[in-house]
Design a protein that fits this description.
Elements (H helix, E strand, L loop, with lengths): L1 E6 L6 H17 L4 E3 L11 H7 L7 H13 L2 E10 L5 E8 L5 E6 L5 E3 L5 E3 L11 E5 L2 E5 L8 H9 L4 E3 L6 H19 L2 E4 L3 E3 L5 E3 L3 E3 L5 E4 L6 E6 L4 H8 L2 H4 L11
Helix pairs in contact: 1-3
Length: about 280
């Protein structure tokens, strides 16, 4: 099955973001992709919290999401909006992944579970919990032949989530991201490959890349990892672009049969804290 990852440098307004991403989605479909995934923050990236919160609307009212729903219907493709920054039903903000079917319907959503609250050695800080309400559930979905486990960016660092998704039947983990440059350079590829190997699943990781209007820098290097852990497609840069990969969907079952760690796991007592 042909899939495509869209690497973006999302602008600071929704209208500009749609103009940015839509041509690449069309390019992916023209190349034969029937499943197209975009990065975290596909609809807007804005570091200023007050400015951002004033811009957010409900998922169904966002112009980027609406535009991609129309595109899915026009192109006859599944589109995963890696995440859109939106206003929740209770008025709080959410970092929400949305799966759109070829008839333009939103068939599954997932709110990012793990908030990126860190102080990096470079001096960069992030406090996602100051802006977003975290989700409280893991989500699987089917997109045609693909059995998806839906996650977002920082979730990557929590392997128990991916194990739970795999045990629920997911064979393709979607990990749209906007990785910082220092963490991307150090950890991006090794963590993606680890999640694929641990779960015997494909990893699809569309990324933000480059220097953005709001001043942030993101790593790019979108990649597809096969269930045995090999990188089968990757962009070697941080520029906007389209990455194509043809997935052999039998590979997940083959990897899990070869290394049956999902079946071999045993319960154990928690260790005592070290004094």
């Amino acid at each position: 099955m042909m899939v495509a990852l869209i690497q973006t440098r999302t602008p600071a307004t929704q209208a500009a973001a749609l103009e940015h991403v839509l041509p690449m989605v069309r390019e992916a479909a023209a190349a034969g992709a029937t499943f197209i995934a975009t990065p975290e923050g596909t609809n807007v990236l804005q570091k200023d919290r007050v400015t951002l919160l004033a811009m957010l609307v409900a998922l169904e009212d966002d112009v980027v999401v609406s535009g991609l729903r129309d595109a899915a219907k026009e192109l006859g493709a599944w589109i995963l909006v890696g995440s859109a920054l939106v206003k929740r039903e209770d008025g709080k903000a959410a970092n929400r992944s949305a799966l759109i079917s070829p008839d333009g319907a939103i068939v599954a959503t997932y709110d990012k579970l793990h908030m990126f609250d860190v102080d990096l050695p470079t001096g960069e800080t992030a406090r996602e919990s100051a802006t977003y309400e975290p989700g409280d559930r893991a989500v699987t979905a089917r997109a045609g032949q693909l059995k998806l486990g839906m996650t977002v960016c920082y979730d990557l660092r929590f392997p128990a989530l991916y194990r739970a998704l795999a045990l629920a039947g997911a064979e393709v983990m979607t990990i749209p991201a906007a990785f910082t440059r220092p963490t991307g350079e150090a950890h991006w590829e090794v963590l993606m490959r680890a999640r694929a190997i641990e779960t015997g699943a494909f990893v699809l990781a569309p990324a933000q890349g480059g220097r953005h209007e709001d001043g942030r820098g993101t790593w790019g290097h979108s990649m597809v990892v096969a269930p045995w852990g090999e990188v089968i497609a990757q962009l070697d840069h941080d520029e906007p672009g389209v990455l194509l990969a043809d997935l052999d969907l039998a590979a997940a079952a083959k990897a899990r049969a070869a290394i049956p760690n999902l079946a071999n796991a045993r319960p154990f007592a928690e260790p005592a804290p070290i004094a």
